[in-house]
Design brief:
531 residues, mainly beta, Immunoglobulin-like, 4 domains, 6-stranded antiparallel β-sheet, 36 strands, disordered N terminus
Length: 531
């Protein structure tokens, strides 16, 4: 027991300040009022930490009550929070400009039937032009029987694809189909088929087999006929219809004949008004195929509107003209320009397939007057009539007299010269020998053989040969020596430029009853001549 007393005294000493706490125990009722204030005062919370050391349960229960008491100063400090005016002007919510996100999309485009069987119907379409900021969630496909307004939804969830196959249909029914685009903003205006679709199997889909030559512009001349055969396929027999530029054909001008396999477009005599785009449609129920044929009827163009002689100078004339008003329903490919001399009146083509509307005609004859005309040209040919200049272009004669330049004559005369002089020869009595030399000169020199200052003429002992070569002449003399003598042969070359001589000395000596040699000596001369 004495041990328990000190245990009770120890808390009694510390309790003098705490007796008021139990008295404050009834005060927990206002504590709930101050409960929102403890949130901004988390600092006093560490103070209860020493309380668990004493381990008395009441102390821990009283601590929450102390917190509101200590929080009271926080309430007194609460008036120091004048920052609420910032909340008085909150920024505008940014969600307001996002209202367009809730707008529904526009209706789908080009809803058509792709295939039909006894129990199914396959339709396809294109995405709407406007989807909106919310995007596109998918499509809703619905159908109803002809004559009723009971639309039945085919898909429970939005379809993402741009085609849908409606199944489990009854053969023989005629159905209308519509498609809606969906997003968060709701459903769009539905796209509906133009006419009801009978549910029956099509054995052979309609198909036009357009000939290759009709896949480009089909050209015909005015007055020619048109007879086009367009084959097609389809079962049961498809319905065939023709239009021109989106309008029905004129039966007075165009005839159409249809059969099970082809259709014929016939025009007996074409006119320019028959040009246009012809469209043929082959249809079986809701399935169809189309082909377009571009027919162009052309003729010769009209003449250019006007022509003008712009300028004339020297031997040239400048022209200008304007394109024709009537191009013959075909592009102008060029122009043909012709000229005519006023004296003769004959027309000569100057330029062909010329693409510009101005040109310069050159090489005109001095002293003549010229007229000009121009034809327009297209795929058919030249225009029937040309446009002719009203004024003539006169090419004036100039007063300048042509004086050819004087040609200085060159003097080609050249004094005779030896290009190969006579050479010394040694020969035997009783044998013949030759003396050879080559000369040149302009004009042709005359060659004279001389012996001892005497001209050798008709002596059978001597035979002179003269040959003319390229730029030179060669002279050869054949000498037959029968006696011993002391003599001198010389050759003389004469022309208008002067004389030139060369001499060969001949020495003869006597030998008794034995052959004797005749020595001919001459100085060696080397001469080089160039024209």
């Amino acid at each position: 027991m004495p041990a328990k007393v000190p245990i009770k005294k120890a808390p009694a000493k510390k309790a003098p300040s705490k007796p008021a706490e139990p008295a404050a125990a009834p005060a927990p009722e206002p504590a709930p009022v101050a409960e929102p204030a403890p949130e901004p005062v988390p600092a006093p919370a560490p103070e209860p930490v020493p309380a668990p050391v004493e381990e008395p349960a009441p102390a821990t229960e009283a601590q929450p009550a102390e917190a509101p008491v200590e929080a009271a100063p926080a309430e007194s400090a609460a008036p120091a929070e004048p920052e609420k005016p910032a909340e008085a002007a909150p920024p505008p919510p940014p969600a307001e400009p996002e209202k367009p996100k809730d707008e529904p999309p526009s209706q789908p485009l080009e809803l058509t039937v792709e295939d039909v069987t006894d129990t199914t119907l396959l339709v396809k379409w294109k995405a709407p032009e406007q989807v909106g900021a919310a995007g596109l969630d998918g499509y809703l496909v619905e159908y109803c029987k002809e004559g009723t307004d009971a639309w039945v939804a085919v898909n429970q969830e939005p379809c993402v694809s741009n085609r849908y196959n409606i199944q489990n249909l009854t053969q023989g029914d005629k159905l209308l189909v519509r498609v809606k685009a969906l997003n968060r903003g709701g459903a769009s205006v539905p796209a509906v088929l133009d006419q009801p679709v009978p549910i029956r199997e099509i054995v052979d889909r309609p198909k036009i087999r357009l000939p290759r030559f009709l896949r480009q512009t089909y050209l015909r001349h005015v007055g020619e006929g048109v007879n086009l055969v367009i084959p097609f396929q389809g079962k049961p027999r498809p319905q065939v219809s023709w239009t021109k530029n989106g309008q029905p054909l004129d039966p007075k001008q165009v005839s159409v004949r249809n059969s099970d396999r082809d259709t014929i477009l016939f025009i007996r005599k074409t006119e320019r008004k028959d040009s246009g785009k012809y469209e043929v449609t082959v249809q079986i129920d809701s399935l169809e195929d189309k082909a377009t044929i571009d027919i162009q009827v052309i003729e010769r163009p009209g003449p250019p509107k006007s022509i003008k002689l712009v300028d004339v100078w020297g031997f040239n004339a400048a022209l200008e003209w304007t394109p024709p008003d009537d191009d013959g329903n075909s592009e102008i490919k060029g122009y043909t320009i012709q000229k005519s001399d006023k004296k003769t009146g004959e027309w000569f083509t100057v330029l062909e397939h010329y693409h510009r509307t101005n040109c310069t005609v050159t090489d005109l004859i001095m002293g003549n007057s010229y007229y000009f005309r121009v034809f327009a040209e297209n795929l058919v040919g030249l225009s029937e009539k040309p446009v002719v200049t009203k004024d003539c272009a006169f090419i004036k004669k100039t007063g300048v007299v042509y004086k050819p330049a004087e040609f200085p004559e060159r003097d080609f005369t050249e004094a005779p010269k030896f290009t190969q002089a006579l050479s010394n020869r040694t020969t035997t009595t009783g044998y013949s020998t030759k003396l050879f030399c080559a000369v040149r000169g302009t004009p042709k020199p005359k060659i004279i053989w001389m012996k001892n200052q005497m001209e050798i003429r008709e002596d059978p002992k001597y035979r002179a040969l003269i040959n003319q070569g390229a730029g030179r002449e060669s002279a050869t003399i054949r000498i037959s020596i029968w006696i011993w003598f002391r003599s001198k042969e010389q050759e003389s070359i004469v022309n208008k430029s002067g004389d030139f001589k060369t001499t060969t000395k001949t020495l003869a000596r006597l030998c008794c009853a034995s052959p004797c040699t005749k020595a001919i000596h001459n100085d060696n001369v080397n001469i080089f001549i160039a024209f």
